[in-house]
Amino acid sequence: MCIIEHPEGRSDILPCVRHVVASSFDASAYLGALPQFAGQLPTGAARFATDPGHYDLAGSRCVKDLAVSELLHDGPAGTVRIRYAGNPWKHDEDLIVQYTGVTRLDVDAGDPSEGSGKVYGPGLIGHIMLDEILPAPEGCRHEIAGHRGRVVVVCADLTATWVRVPRPDDPPPGSWTPVLALGDRWHWLGRTPDGTWVVGVPHRRADPAEDSLDTLLEVLAGSWPATARRWSGLPPQAPALQTIVRHALVCGDWRARLALEWLEQGLPMSEDLAGALQVVQDDRRYGQRERHRARRLWKSYRRDAGH
To answer: Sorting pLDDT into bands at 50, 70 and 90, what band is 12?
Structure first.
């Protein structure tokens, strides 16, 4: 339970993280209840709480895996500024939240939170599991649950801003231009100024497309017709979908199954793909069902080609 003290002397006893199950990274109950009280939240808090990326656990703008790197509390001004450092394996940006009209700040990390101007270092509460924003008489209540503690801020409103953080291995600006998102939330197909096709994360390093076929396999998660429509807007020099499918076939396991689905959905065949299918149908590392599917597709292609 959390005790929320108000300026006029009364106190509220509220359950901590009322809807979110932080320990199992489950925000489903909160997201189910959010439409019922989102209209009661102040403008900035509502915008942050309802951001589609807020609880997208695999997304680059999810609060999970952030860490408090700086907390500045100005008591007389009634403000708190928290910088949440991004996890380099997941985030491209840090999150900065400015709280205004602060009436309560609780930091459960073995350190007192009273006073003004106190700056906390990195690792204050460990990596964040999840957070929760609820309406409060003062405006809103933001609770951030970490692996080693929690922070609770009661305030009039908050403003959340994502800020990109330069890294030592960042390429020079303009070294490549993202052209098409591959679908895994991070990687894009793009081009360098000299026209080379590359695959990478925007603002980060990109590698030549021919060396990134494993990453390009992400496009197989969509259907062949839908992906073909997206690919149709690319220049002819872009990596061919047939090349990606051939790579998937020879990789085996789930990737080969997705490639077979694309061929069954109508991906145009080629001699190169027929050769890969011939390998699959004779390779006992593949399951019997996959070998039979590959043989049917190979035989159909040979028949249509007049062989």
So the answer is: very low
Q: Which residue has the tokens 């695959």?
A: 199
Specify the DSSP class assigned to residue 211: G
3-state helix, strand, coil in the chain (%, to 5): 30, 30, 40
User: Using N-to-C axis directions, what is the helix angle for 224-231 and 241-251, rounded to 10°?
Assistant: 140
Task: For residue range 131-141, list pLDDT tens digits in order.
Answer: 999 999 999 99
Model confidence over 90-106: pLDDT tens digits?
888 899 999 999 999 99
Q: What pairs with residue 151 in β-bridges?
A: 107, 144
Region for 305 from its dihedrals, namely left if φ exceeds 0, alpha if ψ lies in -120 to 50, beta otherwise? alpha
Is there a contact between 135 and 37 (Cβ–Cβ < 8 Å)?
yes
Cβ(116)–Cβ(96) below 8 Å: no
Task: Give the pLDDT confidence score for residue 113 in this predicted structure.
Answer: 43
